[in-house]
Design goal:
By secondary structure, the protein is α/β, with parallel strands linked by helices. The chain has an eight-stranded parallel β-sheet, sandwiched between helices. It has helices at 24-35, 53-56, 62-69, 83-104, 134-145, 162-168, 216-234, 260-277, 294-309, 328-343, and strands at residues 4-7, 43-46, 110-114, 151-155, 174-181, 205-210, 238-244, 282-288. Helix 7 runs parallel beside helix 8 (260-277). The protein has one domain: Histone deacetylase domain (Arginase, Chain A, 3-Layer(aba) Sandwich), CATH 3.40.800.20. It contains ten helices and eight strands. It binds zinc ion (ZN). Residues 157-159, 246, 288 line the site of zinc ion.
Length: 351
């Protein structure tokens, strides 16, 4: 039977910035999880360790870590720092690192980092609710100590992961692919089609800026036409996913128009791909979601887990799906075609 690790500790609740990112999201999710998927014997809650200084150094500079430990934030509006928050950020980084180890060692088939998926922080910059790159530390640790040579990161959070991109832009061992809302309409204003990596990493990053109100069909199309062929050609040894609930149509800071079923479908496509090319090895970082309806944030995280594990669970949409404005599918297809053409210089699957 497949084994799934859910990395969570009560101490993660201190990852609370007092604005849209609050600790009740953890409690709500855990309550829902225990009543649903948590009853399945394949799941185990695993309490993660805090990342050590040396583990943070896998990505971040010495000076940066010291500044963060002194709680001197250069992004005080989005990312205000306090000792308890910094400690929780180290725990999240430790969770990401440990999740990768649990899957790579074969102890678990898949792992979920609850509250994870730091997207905007880079080696020496805190940004957009994030301080230490849990995803980056996970990947770098596997390459440095577990003999992993190729990793693919699929990021379907509604925001472009500019920090993750920056960290791995020059590294051909890490293929970063992000589907997100057109950055000319949303924070962080980065993640355009021409951002495909730098130097020896050129061709190993793909940014897919989808129009607002894209909807599930365009996600499915983009994943099938871009992600799957690239993953099959790149052949990573593990897939890391960054997702969560912020592409949902009720989200108050994004407009991607994805449904709960759509979030499940994204997880399913990623997982099916992992099963075909890397023995199903996958770590899912689930942390986003800014819907005023807290039930939707939890349900989206659960939907992602259901998609990734293939375990059926009731995922009824809590509010009616609004009619779609216009036909975004045509725009999505044009973006995908344009990217396939650009990437054909690096990837024969598009020639
Ligand atoms: Zn986001």
């Amino acid at each position: 039977m497949s084994k799934f690790a859910v990395l969570y500790s009560e101490k993660l609740k201190d990852y609370d910035l007092g604005h849209v990112l609050t600790q009740d999201r953890y409690e709500n999710f855990l309550n829902l999880f225990h009543k649903t998927l948590g009853r399945h014997s394949g799941f185990t809650i695993v309490v993660p360790p805090h990342a050590t200084h040396n583990e943070l150094r896998l990505i971040h500079t010495q000076e940066y870590i010291q500044r963060i430990e002194k709680c001197e934030s250069k992004d005080p509006l989005d990312t205000p720092l306090s000792p308890s928050f910094v400690r929780a950020a180290k725990l999240l980084a430790g969770a990401g690192k440990y999740a990768g180890e649990l899957v790579c060692s074969g102890e678990y088939n898949k792992a979920f980092v609850v509250g994870g998926g730091v997207q905007h922080a880079s080696i020496d910059q805190e940004k957009g609710f994030g301080v230490f790159s849990d995803v980056g530390i996970c990947a770098q640790n596997l390459m440095a100590y577990y003999g992993v040579k190729k990793i693919m990161i699929l990021d379907t959070d509604a925001h472009a992961g500019d920090g993750i991109y920056k960290i791995f832009a020059e590294d051909p061992r890490v293929f970063y692919m992000s589907l997100h809302q057109d950055p000319s309409t949303l924070y962080p204003g980065k993640g355009f089609m021409d951002e495909i990596g730098v130097g020896s990493g050129e061709g190993f990053s793909v940014n897919v800026p989808l129009p607002p109100d894209t909807g599930p069909e365009a996600y499915e199309y983009t994943l099938t036409e871009l992600f799957t062929p690239l993953a099959e050609e790149f052949r990573p040894e593990i897939i890391l996913m960054v997702d969560g609930s912020d592409p949902h149509f009720t989200d108050q800071i994004t407009q991607m128009g994805l449904t709960i079923e759509g979030i499940r479908m994204v997880g399913e496509i990623a997982s099916d791909t992992a099963h075909r090319i890397c023995a199903g090895k996958l770590v899912d970082f689930i942390g986003s979601g800014y819907s005023p309806n807290q039930k939707i944030v939890s349900l989206g995280w659960l939907a992602s887990m259901a998609g990734v594990t293939g375990i059926e669970v009731a995922l009824e949409e809590p509010v009616p799906i609004p009619p779609r404005k216009g036909n975004r599918m045509q725009e999505a297809k044009a973006i995908v075609r344009s990217l396939q053409s650009k990437l054909s210089a690096y990837w024969p699957c598009f020639r």
